[in-house]
Amino acid sequence: MPFQDVCARVGGQAQEKATPARLRYLADTLCRFGLGLIPDPRFPVRAPSSSAVLLFPLDAPSESVDPPSDIYKAAFLTLSVGMLVAKANGEVTDDERSTLNELVATTPGLAPDERRRLAADACWLEAHLAELPSLRSRLSELDTGQRQSIGDALVRVASSDGSHHRAEIALLEKAFRQMGLDQDRLYAALHRAGPGPDAARAAEAPDDLVRVALGMGSERTYAIPGAPAPIAAPRPSAAAARQASVTDTSSVQGGRTVAAEAADQVDAERLMAIRAEMFAISAVLAGVFDTEPEAANAGSTGAARAEEDAAEAGGAFAGLDPRHARLMRELIARPAWPRAEFDRLAREFGLMPGAAMEDLNAWAYDCFDDVLVVEGDPVHVNLHLLPETLSEAA
Questions:
Q1: What residue stretches are annotated with the TerB-C domain (predicted)?
Q2: Nearest Cα to 26, choosing from 68, 61, 38, 72?
Q3: In tens digits, what is the pLDDT along the chain, a chain of 394 residues?
């Protein structure tokens, strides 16, 4: 439901912007009535660009919101990446949704309110998918056993509908790389959980050679013939040998005459080639000396651009390379950009749109612990993360 409506009912006054402080105050108020709020800044769910919130029932009213446990954080990461895998092909099937709900219900060690919140997180994440780059640092903080458990859960989600889509496998490969897991482990798990009625038997069978069919004992066979014996060449007579000797001598003498004539011809051609090469070198040198002022101007322009890039990199967007910094300088002019215009702007600065979006979000997550650019059409820019002086200057 809209954030403004919840604020009007709880506080008596509608608020336009869902800031972290207002969301925290609203969550603390609602928990006294036995209601939980998503997003809550104390939990890993990130607020979307729209002012939408989700209410869910708690186990009982409480005076304050308990902070998330480590078990909840690990389960939320699994749920977030699992929802990305389930929706990689455009929609979440009933089987995939059931597998994700089973993950919520069977995670051991969760408090009752955490389990209720995790079930609500599944509904929220299906409507507001997390960005995989924003989860990278949290995934890297887990130990090897936890990351392997998440990887196994992701394979179960991808295989729950009985098929493996190409988009799901591509996202699984990317997730395994970010978690530092072996790609061979992924392919082996996909093979064991692959579609088909024999998937369960394939998972239990050892990875060994399989005998497909036995040969027929009465089948007629044929031996491969051996190599043919070499045929000796006949020996020439004495008269034929004398004639061949005379022919060889005349050929040598004729060859010398032809070689001499060819040498004269090569010298003439070489002389013409040298002259043509000298003319070409003279033309190139003349072009170089004629364009000295232009080269100097180009050098001064490159120096000015280098100074501008250095100033940009050390300014408000420290940590970004000059091209991404100049792109951000344009993006902060407004909170939403049509996707085609964003792609055109990224290419003007020599960047691939998708890669530029990931790099900007990785930088924003390191600086603000949140996603800066939300993919879609239009592309939303979370300007509230940036300093107010920077937004006003734009």
A1: 258-388
A2: 38
A3: 777 787 778 766 666 777 788 888 888 888 988 999 888 888 887 766 667 888 899 988 888 888 889 889 888 888 888 888 888 877 888 888 888 888 888 888 989 999 999 999 888 888 888 777 777 778 778 888 888 888 888 888 888 877 788 888 888 888 888 888 888 888 888 888 765 444 444 444 444 555 555 555 555 666 676 666 666 555 655 555 555 555 554 444 444 454 455 545 556 667 677 777 776 676 656 554 544 444 444 444 444 454 454 444 445 677 888 888 888 888 888 888 898 999 998 889 888 888 888 888 888 877 877 778 888 888 888 888 777 655 544 4
Pairing of strands 35-38, 373-374: unpaired
pTM score, whole prediction: 0.51
Largest CA distance in the chain: 127
CA 223 and chain centroid, separation: 56
Secondary structure (DSSP) of 105-130: HH-TT--HHHHHHHHHHHHHHHHSPP
- Token pair belonging to 355: 């890669």
Domains of the chain: 3-57 (no CATH), 70-204 (1.10.3680.10), 314-393 (3.90.1150)
Q: What is the Cα–Cα distance from 80 to 129, expressed in whole angstroms?
A: 8
Residue 97's SS3 state is helix
